[in-house]
């Protein structure tokens, strides 16, 4: 199932924090990292997608059904914000994709014959390596 979805502004809750890691004065002074919070139950997603998201065992999903994504790659607050939204959309797209059902098939008669022929050829090669018996 292909889902063309992008979250509405009211569904996203952004909070800006200081990024961790190296970066010197920029990291210490500027709140460029973004926490994106997305409540699955209140969203406009189809019920099937909501169920699949809530069933995921992903550490970004809280027990209350809220997805929390932290983006801090860039020094720009806007880039981090866009990155967080892109990762949210990617997560929803991954859940929306249903894998094609596998149908069990039987090997053909010819493929069985080729396999057995190969096995007997191999056993003949290995039998030829054995020490000759003295009768």
Automatic annotation (TrEMBL):
Residues 18-34 form the Prokaryotic-type class I peptide chain release factors domain. It comes from the Bacteria. Pfam families: RF-1. It comes from Roseateles toxinivorans. PROSITE patterns: RF_PROK_I. Transmembrane segments: none annotated. GO terms for biological process: rescue of stalled ribosome. One of its GO terms (molecular function) is translation release factor activity. Residues 99-135 are annotated as: Disordered. SUPFAM superfamilies: Release factor. Gene3D superfamilies: 3.30.160.20. Belongs to the prokaryotic/mitochondrial release factor family. PANTHER family: PEPTIDYL-TRNA HYDROLASE ARFB. This is Ribosome-associated protein.
């Amino acid at each position: 199932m292909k889902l063309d979805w992008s979250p509405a502004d009211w569904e996203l809750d952004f909070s800006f924090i200081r990024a961790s890691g190296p970066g010197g004065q920029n990291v210490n002074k500027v709140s460029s990292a973004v926490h994106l919070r997305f409540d699955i139950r209140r969203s406009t997603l189809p019920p099937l997608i909501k169920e699949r998201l809530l069933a995921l065992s992903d550490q970004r999903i809280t027990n209350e059904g809220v997805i929390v994504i932290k983006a801090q790659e860039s020094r720009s607050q806007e880039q981090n914000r866009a990155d967080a939204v892109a990762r949210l959309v990617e997560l929803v797209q991954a859940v929306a994709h249903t894998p094609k059902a596998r149908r069990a098939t039987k090997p053909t008669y010819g493929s069985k014959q080729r396999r057995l022929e190969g096995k007997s050829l191999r056993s003949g090669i290995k039998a030829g390596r054995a020490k000759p018996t003295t009768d």
